[in-house]
Amino acid sequence: MYKLSLFIAVGLLFVSCGKKEQSGDDFSKPTTEEATTKADPSSYDPNRGEGKFDKVDLGATLDQAMATEGEKVSGVKCTSCHKATDEKLVGPGWKGVTSRHQPQWIMNFITNPDPMINKDPKVQAQLEICLVRMPNQGLNDTEARNILEYMRKIDGVK
Amino acid sequence: MKNKFVKAIFTIAMGSALLISCKPKNSGDAVSGDAAQKAYVAPGKYDEFYNFVSGGFSGQLSVYGLPSGRLFRVIPVFSVDPEKGYGYNEETKPMLNTSHGFVPWDDLHHTEMSQTNGEVDGRWVFGNANNTPRIARIDLKTFTTKEIIELPNSAGNHSSPFITENTEYVVAGTRFSVPADNSNGDVPINTYKKNFKGHLSFVKVGKEGQMDIAFQIQCPGVNFDLSHAGKGKSHGWFFFSCYNTEQANTLLEVNASQKDKDFIMAVNWKKAEEYIKAGKGKLTPTKYAHNVYNESTHTATSEIKTQVLILDSKELKDICYMIPCPKSPHGCDVDPTGEYIVGSGKLAALIPVFSFDKLQNAIKNKQFEGEYDGIPVVKYEAALHGEVQKPGLGPLHTEFDGKGNAYTTFFVSSEVVKWDIKSLKVLDRVPTYYSVGHLCIPGGDSKKPFGKYLIAYNKITKDRYLPTGPELAQSAQIFDISGDKMQLILDFPTIGEPHYAQAAPADLIRNNGQLKFYKLDDNKHPFVTKGEKETKVVRNGKRVDVYMTCIRSHFSPDNIEGIKMGDEVYFHITNLEQDWDVPHGFAIKGASTAELLIMPGETSTLKWSPDRVGMFPFYCTDFCSALHQEMQGYLRVSPAGSNVPLTYSLGTNLPAPDQK
Predict the structure, then answer these.
(1) Is B274 helix (H, G, I), strand (E, B) or coil?
(2) What integer pLDDT is reported at residue A11 of this predicted model?
């Protein structure tokens, strides 16, 4: 009995005040979450970096065609800031980069720089020197792989 | 006993709970306690709606968030904007071309969003230029003006740019009737009745938004003020308010207020289409500009068109009908069902509401009281649904909440009045501060209003804000209309004098394929530089083209020599960034135009003519990184006829010969 009247009374409260249920749409949240992962920083693998690449298969010898394509793309998107020598321009020179980092690390970094700039100890050390965060240049997977091949060419892979 | 006691306590508790929770809401003269909460959007949170507000005499369109009232962006449309280089850089100069040549300013009055099936679809916003009649289309993927079309035979493009329910047409009625372009305009002004004509333009909108004047209807010389398209059952019709049916040409505040009733003109545009198919239109010579911004070349082109198809309302009797409407009607609004047409007379003390069904019957049964300059005039009562009695003073504009209610602004009595469309009973009223003009409910002139907020756009704000010289901030006010009573929740200042506005749910805009940057691969600008290796400086006579790039944090080249007095230098600058929100700026000392603001992946051109010999630094104006301040360079100007060779470099750092 009381339960029933309580129910009615509560119902009345809503009715009498003309309160309407919020519509289901909540525009205050982004519909697509930002690409940043919220993983525990301790889970960061400094050899692999962060991004979609787990393992990159490198050929025993240089793929000349890929390296040529990579050189072309980097002419548009990279060499404004990076030299093919070991000289720093805006960012570090590329000479030796393939021996300093794993191929998957390079692929992850050049396609997904921001989270790695925030986490990777080597990148953070580099940022203290260069003071410019590497821009995300919107490289697609093929472009990134070709650039890696070009880096290998710089490092003397035949 | 125990039960009774519990019951009594319970009853008291519930009763008081009812009282507390139903505390009367504000009566309109005060802001109630939860107003701030309702307008508050916490840092880092998004607003629910985008509000596209006309900038009036600023000629621009501003974008606000609702309910926060935060200003997100000012989009240049009809006025040059040095902040973004709009109208100053070589790419956008053609956007402001007209048959009168380059026009750097106009008066953007109304905004209208594109619709599909009568609902806002988030693709484009249209805006009208009132002074030198034009319609612009603003793309909501890039929040930039993509197209501007000039309107011939018109002056004071006021009843514009209202659209049909599938964006088939954007219309534009002339505010000032004038002699047609192909007639002799050099006539005495007091021959108004004989020589002046009112033209209504129907601008076709293509799938990708491309605009084209499909036809114009030549009408009697009156002032066309506002309009709205029919929808649902009245789809295929357009309604225009007209004043000065007295056809006066001087002291209009008296002479155009003589008659007790002016008209709302109903236009059957489907019928007009039939007449065009039947070859009843006449191609008439004229001149108007059509300007289009090309997304892949980042460059606008302007074309002058030379004829327009005209239908004569006098000859083709069943396109146009006049509905008498008291008195000097301004607003002309159609409810979400398409059945009710609300006319609002600036000088009327009531609001007439017309019924589309009754209008159709009246036309069918020829319930006419005569003709006005060849156009049948329907009997007032035959088309009338009813009148809202004593609603306030000076009704202007009406929007709808989709729940059967209409909201009308009253300029003279400074208030918004809510009334029931069917019963015509006044339900609520709230004061505005002050002299409200237009109002906007998100989707409020579509088939599907989002009846949560109402924004009133005010003309005057005395004692509302801190003084800012003789002119105060123009303003808008947000009301929560989700309950029975309107509740003021926020004032916010606007740019220019806000006229009409449109709003849509944020997600509709945010998820429509927003552009984050221009892909360098897709950049087809004729002077694009894809990579620093391609940077160069090319002389061709006195014209020098600089192919320059920018990226955090330098330009390439950053040293240029061999420029001479008398040269015309074109800086074509490509922003090599491929990341969201990294524009770079470019400014050079003595530039007589503006800066460039170059979006990621975009190419933009500044024309610069040196006025003296010497050293001219250039730099990036838009903060880009810790080394932003270092993003700079030098250009050396030598006398005409000097033998300094044309050179350009980046990073050479060679000492000058006399320092070796």
Answers:
(1) helix
(2) 43
Q: Does the distance separating the beta carbons of A80 and B576 come in below 8 Å? A: yes
Is B630 at the interface with chain A, CB within 8 A?
no
B264 SS3 class: strand
CB A126, CB A100: distance < 8 Å: no
Does residue A41 sit in helix, strand or coil?
A: helix
In b/e form, how buried is each residue of B322-352, taking b as 16+ CB within 10 angstroms? bbbbbbbbbbbbbbbbbbbbbbbbbbbbbbb
User: What's the Cα-to-Cα distance from B447 to each of A107, B234, B235, rounded to whole Å?
Assistant: 50, 12, 11
Nearest-CA neighbor of B616 among B587, B648, B589? Answer: B589
Instruction: Give the β-pairing of B384-389 and B375-378.
Output: unpaired
pLDDT tens figures, B479-501: 999 999 999 999 999 999 999 99
CA distance to A14, B562, B652, per residue, from B649 (Å): 74, 12, 7
d(CA A57, CA A147): 14
0.95 surpassed by complex ipTM: no
* Two structure tokens written together for B414: 């400074």
Residue B147 near residue B291 (C-beta atoms within 8 A): yes
pTM of this prediction? 0.89
Q: Which residues of B touch A9 (CB under 8 A)?
A: 14
Phi, then psi, of A70 in degrees rounded to 5: -60, -40
Average pLDDT over residues B199-207: 98
Residue B343's pLDDT band (cuts 50, 70, 90)? very high
Nearest CA in chain A to B549: A80
Is the pLDDT score of A5 beyond 60? no
Tell me how far apart the alpha carbons of residues B393 and B648 are, in angstroms, rounded to a whole number: 69
**Chain A residues interacting with chain B (CB cutoff of 8 angstroms):** 2, 5-6, 9, 12-13, 16-18, 20, 25, 27-31, 75-77, 79-81, 89-90, 131-133, 135-139
DSSP letter, residue B246? T
Q: For residue B61, what are the contacts with CB-CB under 8 A and spacing of at least 6?
A: B52, B53, B54, B55, B74, B75, B77, B108, B111, B125, B127, B138
User: Residue B426 — very low, low, confident or very high, per pLDDT cuts 50/70/90?
Assistant: very high
List the single residue in A with minimal CA-CA distance to B517: A138
Q: Is the pLDDT of residue A16 over 60?
A: no
CA dihedral for B3, B4, B8, B11, sign (positive or negative): positive
Distance, CA of B402 to CA of B449 (rounded, Å): 5
């306690």: which residue's tokens?
B33
Q: Which helix (H) or strand (E) holds B583?
A: none
Contact B206, B241 (CB under 8 A): no
**β-pair type (B568-575, B543-551):** parallel
C-alpha to C-alpha distance for B535 and A138, rounded to whole angstroms: 21
Q: For chains A and B, what is the number of CB pairs under 8 angstroms?
A: 94
CB-CB neighbors (< 8 A) of B22 in chain A: 16-17
What the block records as the tokens of B615 is: 């050293």
Share of chain B above pLDDT 90, in %: 90
Spatial distance between the Cα atoms of B578 and B601, rounded to a whole number of angstroms = 6
Dump pLDDT digits (tens) for B60-119: 999 999 999 999 999 999 999 999 999 999 999 999 999 999 999 999 999 999 999 999
